[in-house]
Please model this.
Amino acid sequence: MQKLLFALFLLPVMGFCQTRFEKGYFVGNDGIRVDCLIKNEDWKNNPAQFDYKEGESGEVKRADIETVSEFAFVPGPRYVRARVDIDYSSDVSEVLKTVDVTTSNLSLKRDPELKNEVLFLNVIVEGKASLYYWYGDNRVRLFYSSSGSAIKQLIYKKYLAEKQDK
Model:
Protein backbone atom coordinates (compact mmCIF):
# COMPACT_ATOMS: atom_id res chain seq x y z
CA MET A 1 0.00 0.00 0.00
CA GLN A 2 2.84 2.38 0.87
CA LYS A 3 4.52 1.67 -2.48
CA LEU A 4 1.28 2.47 -4.30
CA LEU A 5 0.91 5.79 -2.45
CA PHE A 6 4.55 6.62 -3.13
CA ALA A 7 4.10 5.86 -6.85
CA LEU A 8 0.97 8.02 -7.03
CA PHE A 9 2.87 10.83 -5.31
CA LEU A 10 5.79 10.61 -7.77
CA LEU A 11 3.65 10.43 -10.90
CA PRO A 12 2.87 14.20 -11.07
CA VAL A 13 6.50 15.06 -10.24
CA MET A 14 7.75 12.81 -13.05
CA GLY A 15 5.34 14.54 -15.44
CA PHE A 16 7.01 17.87 -14.74
CA CYS A 17 10.46 16.39 -15.29
CA GLN A 18 9.64 15.13 -18.76
CA THR A 19 11.01 16.94 -21.77
CA ARG A 20 8.11 18.47 -23.64
CA PHE A 21 8.19 18.75 -27.39
CA GLU A 22 5.30 20.90 -28.56
CA LYS A 23 3.79 21.50 -31.96
CA GLY A 24 5.46 24.36 -33.78
CA TYR A 25 7.36 25.42 -36.86
CA PHE A 26 10.46 27.24 -37.98
CA VAL A 27 11.41 29.06 -41.15
CA GLY A 28 14.92 28.51 -42.42
CA ASN A 29 17.12 31.03 -44.21
CA ASP A 30 15.84 29.59 -47.50
CA GLY A 31 12.28 30.69 -46.59
CA ILE A 32 10.95 27.14 -46.28
CA ARG A 33 8.63 26.49 -43.34
CA VAL A 34 9.23 23.24 -41.45
CA ASP A 35 6.39 21.97 -39.27
CA CYS A 36 7.88 20.09 -36.34
CA LEU A 37 7.89 19.53 -32.60
CA ILE A 38 10.01 22.08 -30.70
CA LYS A 39 11.42 21.42 -27.25
CA ASN A 40 9.73 23.86 -24.90
CA GLU A 41 12.30 24.88 -22.31
CA ASP A 42 10.24 27.75 -20.87
CA TRP A 43 13.14 30.08 -21.55
CA LYS A 44 13.74 32.90 -19.12
CA ASN A 45 16.28 34.45 -21.48
CA ASN A 46 15.49 34.72 -25.16
CA PRO A 47 17.03 31.68 -26.86
CA ALA A 48 19.76 31.62 -29.48
CA GLN A 49 19.05 27.98 -30.38
CA PHE A 50 16.42 25.30 -29.87
CA ASP A 51 15.97 21.55 -30.24
CA TYR A 52 13.33 20.08 -32.51
CA LYS A 53 12.23 16.83 -34.11
CA GLU A 54 10.13 16.26 -37.19
CA GLY A 55 7.83 13.69 -35.59
CA GLU A 56 7.16 11.97 -32.26
CA SER A 57 9.76 9.30 -32.98
CA GLY A 58 12.08 11.56 -34.98
CA GLU A 59 15.70 12.29 -34.23
CA VAL A 60 16.32 15.36 -32.06
CA LYS A 61 18.12 18.08 -34.04
CA ARG A 62 19.32 21.55 -33.13
CA ALA A 63 18.60 24.79 -34.98
CA ASP A 64 20.17 28.13 -34.20
CA ILE A 65 19.99 31.82 -34.89
CA GLU A 66 22.32 31.52 -37.89
CA THR A 67 20.07 29.07 -39.77
CA VAL A 68 16.53 30.08 -38.69
CA SER A 69 14.73 33.35 -39.45
CA GLU A 70 11.75 32.66 -37.14
CA PHE A 71 10.18 29.92 -35.04
CA ALA A 72 7.00 29.53 -33.05
CA PHE A 73 4.91 27.22 -30.93
CA VAL A 74 1.39 26.65 -32.24
CA PRO A 75 -0.35 28.14 -30.32
CA GLY A 76 2.21 30.07 -28.34
CA PRO A 77 5.07 32.50 -28.52
CA ARG A 78 6.71 33.44 -31.81
CA TYR A 79 10.34 34.52 -32.17
CA VAL A 80 11.84 36.39 -35.12
CA ARG A 81 15.50 36.89 -35.90
CA ALA A 82 16.53 40.52 -36.20
CA ARG A 83 19.75 42.50 -36.43
CA VAL A 84 19.24 45.32 -33.95
CA ASP A 85 21.13 47.93 -32.00
CA ILE A 86 20.69 47.06 -28.33
CA ASP A 87 21.66 49.01 -25.22
CA TYR A 88 23.31 46.64 -22.74
CA SER A 89 24.02 49.34 -20.13
CA SER A 90 22.87 48.45 -16.64
CA ASP A 91 19.76 49.85 -15.06
CA VAL A 92 20.57 48.52 -11.58
CA SER A 93 21.07 50.76 -8.59
CA GLU A 94 20.76 49.52 -5.02
CA VAL A 95 20.70 51.24 -1.67
CA LEU A 96 22.54 49.37 1.05
CA LYS A 97 20.32 50.08 4.05
CA THR A 98 22.82 48.81 6.60
CA VAL A 99 25.42 51.50 5.87
CA ASP A 100 23.22 54.04 4.06
CA VAL A 101 25.37 53.90 0.93
CA THR A 102 24.23 53.68 -2.67
CA THR A 103 26.04 51.28 -4.97
CA SER A 104 25.40 51.51 -8.64
CA ASN A 105 26.20 49.90 -11.94
CA LEU A 106 24.51 52.78 -13.72
CA SER A 107 26.36 54.53 -16.49
CA LEU A 108 27.49 58.14 -16.29
CA LYS A 109 26.52 58.51 -19.96
CA ARG A 110 23.05 59.76 -20.79
CA ASP A 111 23.05 58.34 -24.32
CA PRO A 112 22.47 54.63 -24.88
CA GLU A 113 25.54 52.47 -25.40
CA LEU A 114 24.37 50.54 -28.46
CA LYS A 115 25.83 47.31 -29.74
CA ASN A 116 24.74 45.73 -33.04
CA GLU A 117 23.57 42.14 -32.43
CA VAL A 118 21.52 39.40 -34.08
CA LEU A 119 18.83 38.24 -31.63
CA PHE A 120 15.64 36.22 -31.51
CA LEU A 121 12.95 38.68 -30.42
CA ASN A 122 9.65 37.53 -28.96
CA VAL A 123 6.74 39.01 -30.94
CA ILE A 124 4.26 40.60 -28.52
CA VAL A 125 2.00 42.54 -30.91
CA GLU A 126 2.05 42.37 -34.70
CA GLY A 127 0.37 44.77 -37.11
CA LYS A 128 1.08 48.16 -38.70
CA ALA A 129 3.11 48.80 -35.56
CA SER A 130 4.74 45.76 -33.95
CA LEU A 131 6.17 45.30 -30.47
CA TYR A 132 8.96 42.86 -29.56
CA TYR A 133 10.41 41.67 -26.25
CA TRP A 134 13.92 40.54 -25.32
CA TYR A 135 15.21 39.34 -21.95
CA GLY A 136 18.82 38.45 -21.24
CA ASP A 137 21.58 39.19 -18.75
CA ASN A 138 18.89 40.29 -16.25
CA ARG A 139 17.81 43.05 -18.62
CA VAL A 140 14.44 43.60 -20.31
CA ARG A 141 14.46 45.40 -23.64
CA LEU A 142 11.50 46.32 -25.83
CA PHE A 143 11.71 46.88 -29.58
CA TYR A 144 9.27 48.20 -32.15
CA SER A 145 8.77 48.57 -35.86
CA SER A 146 6.08 50.36 -37.81
CA SER A 147 4.87 49.83 -41.37
CA GLY A 148 7.68 47.44 -42.24
CA SER A 149 10.50 49.68 -40.99
CA ALA A 150 13.61 48.29 -39.32
CA ILE A 151 13.22 47.06 -35.76
CA LYS A 152 14.50 49.59 -33.20
CA GLN A 153 14.82 49.53 -29.44
CA LEU A 154 12.52 51.63 -27.28
CA ILE A 155 15.07 53.50 -25.21
CA TYR A 156 14.57 54.12 -21.52
CA LYS A 157 17.87 54.54 -19.74
CA LYS A 158 18.68 55.21 -16.11
CA TYR A 159 22.01 56.93 -15.62
CA LEU A 160 23.93 58.82 -12.96
CA ALA A 161 24.07 62.57 -13.32
CA GLU A 162 27.23 64.17 -12.06
CA LYS A 163 26.83 66.46 -9.06
CA GLN A 164 27.15 70.14 -9.86
CA ASP A 165 29.02 72.36 -7.43
CA LYS A 166 27.08 75.41 -6.27
Q: What stands out?
A: The chain is about 10% helix and 45% strand. The first helix runs from residue 2 to 17.
